[in-house]
Design a protein that fits this description.
By secondary structure, this protein is mainly alpha-helical. The chain has one domain (14-209, 228-426): MFS general substrate transporter like domains (Growth Hormone, Chain: A), CATH 1.20.1250. Helix content is 75%, strand content 1%. Strands 1-2 form a two-stranded antiparallel sheet. The protein is globular and about 50 Å long. The two termini are 15 Å apart.
Length: 437
């Protein structure tokens, strides 16, 4: 039997990991603002939550095709600036432009708003795979939980910046040419400026030529360049050892839970808890604060105690927390509005602690099952299943809310987290000490 690798420290990779995290920072900045306010913008024209949920799946439908394709394409790309960087430096600035235009078009009609969302998500979902695949290119497999913790901290900081600070700008009235004095605009273009700055820093300071992969791995990658992408994807799914399949099914379930709740949290806080538009995003901000604080500790905990055990523990905790949110929503309507809001935020903060634990450690488990030649493909599979959940879930969750009220939203999430908990029991690979393929 092969000996287990000695566990190493992330020391020596901190700066590289932090800089790579700038790519995740851009996503962490845009996604919460998008998820909180686009349903509100759509609500200007549409009353049914189920229909709003269906439109919110537009980006996910694009993602399920674009992320695997561009992840695998970046595996095969050869330029002087690397294989991931060409996509990052071209597509992220385009994404920033369309993101800044979203709230402006929201005042101009449903059709132009949907077109803007469509163009935004073409660029955003195309670049997401290369952004994510950059880290495992640069960091050894047994350190990726800790590195992913650092990166998720960057995403958490971005979520805090977006939902707690920038979101307050949504209450600021500005004069827009052709529209006059309007609120619910300023946060988006300001966030776009931060995205462009992050891209510049990432390009200047992260050099893919410093990747710690062996010459043998590079040669194998070149040898496999002629393999069709779809054939490679089928080969991954046809493996005799089914750990990769079970972790993909598990993440499908936990993302069905998460993506069912996420699009409606902003509407819930405005319609049920009575907050302003600028305050609505603070609910997601609580998750972001937990992300920033607990991403690195959760990676370290999993490095010491095992990724599978850590993820299953976190999933069980999420089931309990969602049960408490369900009770909060259903039975505490008579409480003082401030108490209801603050207690809801506290529960979401707890949710964020265990959610970041799942996300931080699940991706490295899947990467641990890949090699250099298939890293982008495994990244694409991760996003295929997560975006499939994002397509399935918002209309179902929105329909449940229309039929049974907002408490059904949290019961829905609790059920799927529980299914994910049981599926994870069948995963037997992907620990930090496992030998890379």
């Amino acid at each position: 039997m092969p000996e287990k690798k000695e566990k190493k420290s992330l020391k020596g990779y901190w700066l590289t990991t932090f800089l790579i995290g700038l790519g995740f920072f851009t996503m962490g900045l845009m996604d919460p603002l998008y998820d909180n306010y686009v349903p509100i913008f759509l609500g200007y024209y549409i009353e049914q939550n189920s229909l709003i949920g269906a439109i919110m799946t537009l980006d996910n439908i694009l993602a399920i095709f674009l992320i695997p394709i561009f992840s695998a394409l970046s595996d095969r790309t050869k330029t002087k600036i690397g294989r991931r960087m060409p996509y990052i430096v071209t597509l992220l600035p385009v994404t920033a432009i369309f993101f800044g235009l979203v709230p402006i078009t929201a005042y101009q009609g449903l059709a132009i708003l949907v077109v803007t969302i469509f163009l935004l998500n073409i660029s955003k979902q195309a670049v997401r795979g290369p952004v994510v695949a950059l880290m495992p290119d640069m960091v050894p497999g047994d350190l990726r939980s800790e590195a992913n913790g650092v990166i998720n901290t960057m995403g958490g900081i971005a979520t805090i910046l977006g939902t707690i600070l920038l979101a307050r700008l949504m209450d600021v009235v500005i004069t827009v040419p052709g529209l006059g004095a309007r609120d619910k605009i300023l946060a988006f273009p300001v966030a776009s400026v931060f995205v462009v700055i992050a891209v510049i820093l990432l390009f200047v300071f992260v050099k893919e030529k410093n990747s710690k992969v062996s010459e043998k791995e590079r040669n194998e990658s070149e040898k496999n360049d002629k393999e069709p992408i779809l054939k490679s994807l089928k080969a991954v799914m046809a493996e005799k050892e089914k750990s990769a399949l079970y972790i993909l099914l598990s993440l499908l379930c936990w993302f069905i839970a998460y993506q069912g709740i996420l699009p409606f949290v902003g509407k819930y806080t405005t319609e049920v808890l009575g907050t302003s538009a600028g305050t609505a995003a603070l609910s997601s901000g609580m998750v972001g604060v937990a992300y920033a604080i607990f991403a690195v500790p959760s990676g370290r905990f999993a490095h010491k105690h095992g990724r599978k055990k850590t993820i299953r523990m976190a999933l069980l905790a999420l089931v309990v927390i969602l049960a408490l949110v369900f009770v909060h929503s259903a039975f505490l309507s008579g409480l003082n509005p401030t108490v209801r809001l603050y207690s809801f935020w506290a529960l979401l903060f707890l949710f964020g602690i265990f959610w970041v634990t799942v996300v931080t450690n699940s991706f490295p488990m899947l990467w641990q099952m890949a090699d250099y030649t298939t890293m982008g493909i495994y990244t694409g599979l991760y996003y295929f299943f997560s975006q499939l959940a994002s397509i399935i879930s918002p209309p179902l969750a929105g329909g449940a809310t229309d039929l049974f009220g907002y408490p059904a939203l949290f019961l829905y999430g609790m059920i799927f987290m529980l299914v994910a908990f049981f599926l994870m029991k069948k995963v037997n690979r992907g620990e930090p000490e496992d030998l890379e393929q």
